[in-house]
Design brief:
Blueprint: E1 7-13, H1 27-34, E2 38-40, H2 52-56, H3 65-79, E3 83-93, H4 95-106, E4 113-117, H5 123-128, H6 138-145, H7 152-158, E5 171-176, H8 184-196, E6 201-206, H9 216-234, H10 243-246, E7 251-253
Parallel strand pairs: 1-2, 1-3, 3-4, 4-5, 5-6
Antiparallel strand pairs: 6-7
Length: about 260
């Protein structure tokens, strides 16, 4: 019943990035809409389903034109009057988590806060830590992400880790301790870098999760934390969570000062 005018907005960035958002029911979008946000999703360059040209326009463009597509979507939503420019948040998992960190690092004036779920912060260490079953696709990763293992200038330019001093907006990071793709070390080093310059970040670790959250108690715990965080910084609504709903969650709030990097 709310008019779609100058709403708080969440830019929800899909993972992959070689994947896509599809038309249809999406539980995250429904949850955010229910909490009063305009939820915007974008198939930025490198997304699949639009042909090889669109896919490969994202090659070696992490933090560059791929991120510009997201910036342009925010500008469109503001220009059309849907979004309040002072209350735009960015959120995503895996590559969407990277885009969240990149958004806060490269366009900090655009977002009021960010929600990063298992997002890589340092692309060189990400590729160096790929699991053994990814070795056959390592060449593809180097072509599509960029050869950040050999090109340190590229790595430093597109890795949010090296731009922590620009990340001044509120951030929550959620990580699975057993993630084989984006290892805990990725989030550890990002949180540590932000802590060293005095930026506050909420860091939540789930000790029995991997690349995302499989257990219902952990999912409920995370989304409740996320909606409280978004309500505090972007101004949407938040619901209550009964204790029995969150019983069994393995969430731990880590103190950045205790991280061993």
């Amino acid at each position: 019943g709310v008019d779609p005018v100058k709403l708080p907005m969440v830019l929800l960035v899909h993972g992959g990035p070689w994947a896509r958002d599809r038309w249809g029911w999406n539980p995250q979008a429904q949850w955010l809409s229910n909490r009063g946000y305009a939820c915007v999703m974008c198939n930025f360059r490198a997304s699949t389903g639009y042909g090889k040209r669109w896919l490969h326009l994202g090659d070696a463009q992490w933090g560059a034109t791929m991120q510009q597509d997201l910036t342009d979507v925010v500008a469109w939503a503001v220009k059309e009057g849907f979004a309040d420019p002072a209350r735009v948040a960015i959120m995503g998992g895996s590559y969407g988590g990277y885009a969240t960190l990149a958004g806060l690092a490269f366009t900090p004036e655009l977002y009021c806060c960010g929600v990063d779920i298992v997002g890589p912060a340092h692309l060189k260490t990400l590729l160096q830590s790929t699991p053994s079953y990814w070795k056959p696709m390592k060449k593809m990763l180097s072509l599509r992400v960029g050869d950040v293992e050999a090109d340190e200038e590229l790595n430093q330019r597109c890795s949010p880790f090296f731009h922590a001093d620009k990340m001044v907006k509120p951030l929550i990071i959620a990580q699975g301790a057993n993630d084989p793709r984006v290892k805990k070390a990725e989030s550890d080093q990002m949180v540590s870098a932000m802590h060293k310059i005095g930026t506050k970040v909420e860091y939540v670790l789930y000790s029995d999760e991997g690349h995302g959250f499989a257990r219902p108690a952990n999912r409920l715990d995370f989304y409740h934390r996320a909606e409280l965080f978004l309500a505090a910084h972007a101004g949407g609504r938040s619901g209550s969570a009964e204790a029995d709903m969150l019983a069994g969650s393995t969430a731990q709030i880590l103190d950045p000062a205790t991280l061993q990097i």
